[in-house]
Amino acid sequence: MAQPPLATDEPQALLSRAERYWSVIKDALLNPEEWDDQEWQSEVAELGHLYGLLRRARPTTPEEKARLSRLVEDITAVVSYYGLNPPRVNLES
Fold it and tell me: Residue 40: what are its φ and ψ, rounded to 5°?
């Protein structure tokens, strides 16, 4: 059975999905020696998808907004270390 398109996902659920994606991508970035080249490249390539999830996330509570802010800060710190572009997310909404 096919997964429903992301456009139909609850915007708040996208934050949880982004957190799970980031956990794996972060591990690949910080521990490249533990990944084979193909797996590592595949995970790092998912940054674009992760950034899309972050842009579509619509936190509705102060706790969700804080989670999104912390996630963006963590991503920015790690990817900037590697010279990669950080996500562009409007944290003011």
Answer: -60, -50
Q: What average pLDDT score do residues 59-71 get? A: 92
Output the pTM of the full model: 0.81
CA of residue 18 relative to chain centroid, distance: 4
Place of tokens 């794996």: 24
Question: Residue 49 and residue 31: Cα distance in Å, rounded?
Answer: 21
Q: What are phi and psi of 31, to 5 degrees?
A: -130, 55
CA–CA dist 4, 23 (Å, integer): 23
Q: Is the alpha carbon torsion for 23, 51, 36, 82 positive or negative?
A: negative
CB-CB neighbours of 46 under 10 Å: 15
For the stretch 37-64, pLDDT in tens is 999 999 989 999 999 999 898 888 999 9
